[in-house]
Recover the amino acids of this structure.
């Protein structure tokens, strides 16, 4: 699976972040990871007003083999929580999707 990580100007990216995100995606998606071609992770600062505390948004887009991209987003107070939350949400979405697909194309 190809994994790309991008951040906005307010956040620092780098090898450490990419390694953390890559590990979380592969481990967090579990068996679903084998059916995913690529994942795109975007971490951005979300500050609705200038006097409000900064929160981080993790948008995760995965491309399952033979299907349209699926996108989830998670907002949290720190990057680790945002990434883990988005990966967990994505795992649930993919598990439901693959159950429907496998049920439709299962043995006859």
């Amino acid at each position: 699976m190809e994994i790309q990580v991008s951040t906005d100007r307010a956040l620092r990216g780098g090898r450490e972040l990419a390694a953390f995100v890559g590990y979380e995606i592969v481990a967090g998606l579990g068996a679903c990871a084998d059916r995913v071609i690529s994942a795109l992770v975007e971490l951005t600062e979300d500050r609705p007003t200038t006097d409000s505390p900064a929160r981080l948004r993790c948008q995760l887009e995965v491309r399952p083999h033979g299907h349209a991209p699926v996108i989830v987003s998670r907002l949290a107070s720190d990057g680790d929580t945002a990434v883990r939350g988005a990966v967990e949400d994505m795992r649930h979405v993919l598990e439901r999707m693959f159950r429907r697909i496998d049920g439709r194309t299962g043995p006859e």
The chain has a mean pLDDT of 90.
